[in-house]
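Hey,
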Amino acid sequence: MTGTMRAPRTRGVLSGTLLVLLGLWGGLLPFIGPYFGFGFAPDDTWVYDTDRLQLAIAPAVAVVLGGLIVLAVANRALAMLGAWLAALGGAWFVAGHTVAALWDVSGVGAPLGSGESQRIAEQLAGFTGLGVAIAFLAGLALGRFAVAGARETAPPAADPEHPSPGSTQPLVYGRYARENPPGQGPPPQGPPPQGPPPPRPGDQPVAGEPRYER
């Protein structure tokens, strides 16, 4: 069971890295967007209020932290926990404005774009589309860590020279006796001999004992 909880670190590298980058983008866009005319009112940089804390900073922290967990850990359960955390952050980017209106949160500000297409792009890049992309990557990471690969579930290969106790791995014998383990020899070849053994050279027959013909 312990072996199946481990996963290669490379499994979450791509999704974890993208989650960290998207989380940083979502958390910083309301503060640095006015530098290049793409963001949310007011048209000043690094403007902080509690609305931006709840709608931008908090979900960004959840996504970045979840992405770092997916990126760094080699434990399957922890990586899935990080993916769930990132998915919740992405969901809050999408639905946060609607839900937070229940406790009178007005929002991070109106989009800065003068044209309709730019305002839509700012809304998608800062919240709705960003949250969907984060949720997709988090779901991808969840799927990858939920499945154990064949190499991770396969039992460790047995050492033929040092079999574990109770193992049924057959012993491998060498061609010569000096290569065999002490006190052990190769298995007998062919059928067992029939009848009494032949007399050894130099044995003298004793009167009254039967003689065996070769």
